[in-house]
Structure formats: C-alpha cells, structure tokens
Amino acid sequence: MPLRLQAITRDEHLAFVKSLPSASHMQVPSWGDVKSDWRAESLGWFEEDGRLVGVGLVLMRRPLPKLRRHLAYLPEGPVIDWYAPDLAERWLEPMLAYLKSRGAFSVKMGPPVVVRRWSADTVKAAIADPAARRLRGTRATEHDERAAAVADELRRTGWHQPDPGGEDGFAPGQPRYVFQVPFAGRTLEDIRSGFNQQWRRNIKKADKSGVKVVQGGYDDLPAFHELYVETAGRDRFVPRALPYFQRMWRVLTAEDPDRMRLYLAHHEGDVLAAATMLTVGGHVWYSYGASTSRKREVQPSNAIQWRMMTDAHELGASVYDLRGITDTLDDSSHLLGLLRFKVGTGGQAVEYLGEWDFPLNLLLHKALALYMSRR
C-alpha cells in the first residue's frame, strides 16, 4: 500500500534529518531559504500508524516566461528508503501525484544512491594510462549491485536521465562524480598517512612558511568572495554574487551553528585562500573554495584543507566530501588538475546514480529542454 504523503513543518523535517546518520545538505529545510528564487516545501512520507518514515525538500520554480506551472526539484533527494522493493509504487508515485496536484509539469530528483567507488590508487593508475579516457570506463574498486536495481525500477516506471552534457563530465545540476575521504574508524594520523607524499610535504611547507588558517565569520565573507571571483576567472566558471553567500551563511547557521563554517588561510597579512564547509550529521562537505595566484609556493590550499579535515574529524565526521570531480582523464582538460589535487588525499572517487526526470506534462517538459539547450 502506498505511503501517505503530505506537507510537513520545518521542525518535523529537521527532527527527522537529525534522527539519521546524515543526509544531503540540500535536503535540510534551510537549503530552501538559500535558494530564494525557488519556492520550497517540506514533504513527509507517513506509515498508516502516523509514523514519519521519509522526508524531502522540494524546490519549485517557473522556469519559462509566463508559464503558470512549475518545475519541481529535489536536489540529492528525497530522503527515503531507496532500496525498498516497492520503491515506485509505495514511495515515488505518491510524490508524483502530490507534486502534480501542486502544479508541477516536471519532476527532477537526485537519488543519493552510490553506484561505484574507485580507490585513489585506481584513479592515479587510470590518469597515468594513455588508453584511459573516462573514469566511467575504468574498473571500479567497489560496485553496489543495488544501484542497478534502483535504476531499472526508475526506468520501468517512466523516469529517465537527461543528456549528461556539460564540459569534461560536469553537467548542469548536482555532480554525479565526487571525491570523498572516509573518516569512520580512523584517527587523524590514519587520515594523514593516507595522503600522498606531495600533500604531506605541502602541509609541512605551509606550516614552516607561517601560513595560519583561521575560522572566519559573516564579516569575512567579502574577503572570501574576492578570492572566489579571482578563482572563477582563472578556472573559467561564472561566480555567484556575494549576497548569495551572505544569505547562505545567515540561514544555514540559524538552523545549526555548525551547518556552515568559513576558513581563511593567512600569510604575512595576506589572505591567500578561503573555503566554506557544510555539515549534516556525520557528512562534511568542502563546499566552495577560493585562492589567489600569489604566493602559491607556501601551499595555502593544502593547509586550509588539512585544518578543515581536522575540525571535521573533531565534529565526529564519518566522511569528508570534496564534492565534484571530472569524469575525463584527458590530459588536455583544465579540470584534470583538480582531480589530481583531490586524489592526493588518498580517498575515493564515488559515482552516484545521477539526476532523473519525470515529465508530468510531456509537451511542457520538452519545451523546457529546448529552452535550456538554447540558453
């Protein structure tokens, strides 16, 4: 029998997330406040006895001019039992029916389901292999067969994955490939010993050079943003405006003082690098990073990552997530250097199931796809 789905309060939503080991930072109520140009709603799945067994943050937006219906988006969610044998009928069909009644013409979601993992050694070997072109074509260290069953069920019931598009494996939406450092059951020394020689050497050099990493606050966001804009120009992406980060800080820290942190690396009066860190339960994310091209020889980026990992470990993190990586292993890609940097932590490359669409109105769904392709 399908579960009952209805809107829930922010307090109910947050209490459920707190009862779990973790959930995506994009599935907590405050994330809806970060995305101020979307209308957010908290959804809850209930058993017959009234017990709340799943939640989801849905963001709704009218993406086309004069369109009276909206796109419904659940980034890295919803937070449900993705391995349930009756996933579609019991969990997803009530969601689709509810969102259709709320005026959605299309639903996009990102199941937090891991497909494969590659060890750091496997990724390094693939990068060094001239025949290797994509991470997806490299034999994985671990493979979760349950993910294939979830994908089959989604396809069977009308969900489909959009064209991945994007440059060098990065597509619109949330990253399918990320890099994570497992923390569970490991000491800080265990984690540091997993770094490659270059990482350990750079951390020592930063310390000897006098780099000081401090935890900042709201008033330090302009300094972060100045470096972030410089980074955007160097790495060829469009930066977000400062008010976005200021709103992000206000709403996330109001929900939980440790939900968002800001770190800055100082050297002889200069701020050389800065980064934001997000935490939900035992999952910690390196969210946004920024650095200047000046004084790169004192290794501020390694220093700031080590400080963030140290603090994440102190918070009881089970995983430190460095977020998106490129799928390409091509030496000509300007993103390969970022992959090499993250691989140096000795963690794992992780592939998620990716984002999926369900067109509730096929004509409007296709119109949106055409509109987005021409932007």
TrEMBL record:
<comment type="similarity">
    <text>Belongs to the FemABX family.</text>
</comment>
<dbReference type="GO" id="GO:0071555">
    <property type="term" value="P:cell wall organization"/>
</dbReference>
<keyword id="KW-0808">Transferase</keyword>
<protein>
    <submittedName>
        <fullName>Aminoacyltransferase</fullName>
    </submittedName>
</protein>
<dbReference type="GO" id="GO:0008360">
    <property type="term" value="P:regulation of cell shape"/>
</dbReference>
<keyword id="KW-0573">Peptidoglycan synthesis</keyword>
<dbReference type="GO" id="GO:0009252">
    <property type="term" value="P:peptidoglycan biosynthetic process"/>
</dbReference>
<keyword id="KW-0012">Acyltransferase</keyword>
<dbReference type="InterPro" id="IPR003447">
    <property type="entry name" value="FEMABX"/>
</dbReference>
<dbReference type="InterPro" id="IPR050644">
    <property type="entry name" value="PG_Glycine_Bridge_Synth"/>
</dbReference>
<dbReference type="GO" id="GO:0016755">
    <property type="term" value="F:aminoacyltransferase activity"/>
</dbReference>
<keyword id="KW-0133">Cell shape</keyword>
<keyword id="KW-0961">Cell wall biogenesis/degradation</keyword>
<dbReference type="InterPro" id="IPR016181">
    <property type="entry name" value="Acyl_CoA_acyltransferase"/>
</dbReference>
<dbReference type="Pfam" id="PF02388">
    <property type="entry name" value="FemAB"/>
</dbReference>
